[in-house]
Amino acid sequence: MTHDDATPTPRGTPVPPRTAVISGATGGVGPAVAARFARGGCALALPVRSDVAAARERYPDALVLPADLTDPADAREVARRAEAELGSIDAVVHVAGGFGMRSALELDANDLERQLSLNLRTAAYLTGAVAPAMAERGRGAIVGLSAAAASVGGANLAAYAASKAALEGYLRSVRAELAPKGVTVSIVTPVGPIDTPANREAMRDADPSDWIAAEAVAEALWFLASGSAGARGTELRLTP
Question: Is 160 a catalytic residue?
């Protein structure tokens, strides 16, 4: 299914996205994000690194594409397939990422490489593959999911915090380049744990009642991507 662009939209005019590429759809937050964008009327392209068959069963109405987004060639293929099968891409939502804990004094190259690959390279390569067409059309939305550690750090979070800070710096730089071309770039930062199955398993002794719901994160991402209340190209911090 594709949508057509027969009726032109003025450059930079906020319009709800009709198609979206969402990374990390099989992670802890991704299912809520995919559900929110589908409920908003979006056709979805979901790059998936593993368990592609299970993802296709879970998302029968989406275009599930096998891809390792840490590989720029895979990211370009995702953009090509998504445009070919769904039409022009209105939004790209960066949910894919990774978390790791290790003392800053014990980090090795593998620790840094893993966090940078999962939290920065996936977003950079996918943005680089999708954004040029957005800029040419004069519209589009790019939204990234960050973390409070990007600005405040934390014990045993050096590599993770550094990679999320790098993500934020990258997205702000993309915003500076693309805003004049009608493409908006936004960042959502949860300030506190997100209520996901993985976090509940990792923090069994914690009280999740004051955690941030995955659905709240999804709503914030949709809010920025859709131009709701005129909010485009900005940054939101979510608190419990």
Answer: yes
